[in-house]
């Protein structure tokens, strides 16, 4: 029998946590033959609700679930962690300035990064979901100097999945017919969903769409503003789809992208495609054996260039702001 993998989830009592934990425990995060221990990190006010969720996890009698630890101590939650899903974050409240938002999150992701540095397993893989995800991931990464920088990633898979679904709908095909779509930049309204490299049943998707106005005025804003549309419709932010994307992100990272396809992940830039080195930006990546590589050599049109640059400029601003606040 295999040794269980330690999976830490922060914000475990939140709505994404509730949608996420049952799928981790049922084998969707790592594979149907991989046992897991769950480590749930919450703030003191969230502990009781996390205990309730743990009771329900027990009640599922999941064959792969070993033990569950519930704590408000990062050093305990990240002890021996192999995979960490950083979901809990400080949301923007009415009247909150951006600097306040970044400092509040720095107060969460700085100490969590340090706890990962000091306590996690050597093979730790981190996915940051809590917003502002890219910059929170950067804060955590910079506070974990002993962990290879590429182990810190930010989630743009929900944007990726949203873009695939919108494109499939437009072309009257299924999501299975679409490959090589890319989300570039920040998980924010400036993100750029790129279909110029994408394939639909093996043919170029942009040519199949053949409608630049739809791309600029419908597709890109629909994907970029989907989070707001969900809040408007549901009265609460995306939870099950966000949890699903977190599952997809880690599953793909660990188990690999399909031959000929790629995915989108927020990762530390090495300067590829002119993206400022060191920031955490979304790129097209292939994954294999738990490692990823940025897809190289893609031709970037002027249409794409302007949009990638705008989103990267926002990330550079966020980095400069957290640097000025002394958070990195
Ligand atoms: P929620 O408010 O329902 O849950 C957040 C939970 O985090 C709460 O239980 C809270 O007690 C906990 N928490 C706060 N600070 C913590 C800390 N320092 N340590 C541990 N736990 C802490 O929020 P929800 O809906 O679950 O969303 C979580 C985050 O995910 C938000 O920041 C949201 O903006 C973000 N998000 C990101 C998406 C992406 O595509 N990257 C998509 C959807 C949401």
TrEMBL record:
Positions of the Lactate/malate dehydrogenase N-terminal domain: 6-146
Pfam families from the UniProt entry: Ldh_1_C (PF02866), Ldh_1_N (PF00056)
UniProt-recorded Gene Ontology molecular function terms: L-malate dehydrogenase (NAD+) activity
Keyword set includes Ribosomal protein: no
Keyword Nucleotide-binding belongs to the record: no
GO process annotations (BP): malate metabolic process; tricarboxylic acid cycle
Catalytic function, reaction form: (S)-malate + NAD(+) = oxaloacetate + NADH + H(+)
Record keywords, A-Z: NAD, Oxidoreductase, Tricarboxylic acid cycle
Binding site for substrate: 92, 98, 131, 162
Enzyme Commission number, as recorded: 1.1.1.37
InterPro entries noted in UniProt: L-lactate/malate_DH, Lactate/malate_DH_C, Lactate/malate_DH_N, Lactate_DH/Glyco_Ohase_4_C, Malate_DH_AS, Malate_DH_type2, NAD(P)-bd_dom_sf
Positions of the catalytic residues: 187
UniProt-annotated binding residues for NAD(+): 11-17, 105, 112, 129-131
Domain Lactate/malate dehydrogenase C-terminal: 156-322
Similarity comment text for this entry: Belongs to the LDH/MDH superfamily. MDH type 2 family.
Physiological role: Catalyzes the reversible oxidation of malate to oxaloacetate.
Name of the protein in question: Malate dehydrogenase
Gene: mdh
């Amino acid at each position: 029998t295999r040794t269980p993998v330690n999976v830490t989830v922060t914000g475990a009592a939140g709505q994404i946590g509730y949608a996420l934990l049952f799928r981790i425990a049922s084998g969707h995060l790592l594979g149907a033959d991989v046992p897991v221990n769950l480590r749930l990190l919450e703030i003191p006010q969230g502990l009781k609700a996390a205990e309730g969720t743990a009771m329900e996890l027990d009640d599922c009698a999941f064959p792969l679930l070993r033990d569950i630890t519930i704590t408000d101590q990062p050093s305990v939650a990240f002890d021996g962690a192999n995979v960490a899903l950083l979901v809990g974050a400080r949301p923007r409240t009415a009247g909150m300035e951006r600097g306040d938002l970044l400092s509040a999150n720095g107060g969460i992701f700085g100490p969590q990064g340090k706890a990962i540095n000091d306590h996690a397993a050597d093979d730790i893989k981190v996915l940051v979901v809590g917003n502002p995800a890219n910059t929170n991931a950067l804060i955590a990464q910079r506070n974990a100097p002993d962990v290879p920088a590429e182990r810190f990633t930010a989630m743009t898979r929900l944007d990726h999945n949203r873009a695939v679904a919108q494109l499939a709908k437009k072309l009257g095909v299924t999501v299975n017919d679409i490959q090589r779509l890319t989300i570039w930049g920040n998980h924010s309204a400036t993100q750029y969903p790129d279909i110029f490299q994408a394939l639909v049943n093996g043919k170029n998707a942009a040519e199949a769409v053949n409608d630049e106005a739809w791309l600029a005025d419908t597709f890109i804003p629909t994907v970029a503003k989907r989070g707001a549309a969900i809040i408007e419709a549901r009265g609460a932010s995306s939870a099950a789809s966000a949890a699903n994307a977190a599952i997809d992100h880690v599953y793909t990272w660990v188990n690999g992208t399909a031959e000929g396809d790629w995915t989108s992940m927020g990762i530390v830039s090495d300067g590829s495609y002119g993206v400022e080195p060191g920031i955490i930006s979304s790129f097209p990546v292939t994954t294999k054996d738990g490692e990823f590589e940025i897809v190289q050599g893609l031709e970037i049109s002027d249409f794409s260039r302007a949009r990638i640059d705008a989103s990267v400029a926002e990330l550079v601003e966020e980095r400069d702001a957290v640097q000025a606040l002394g958070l990195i």
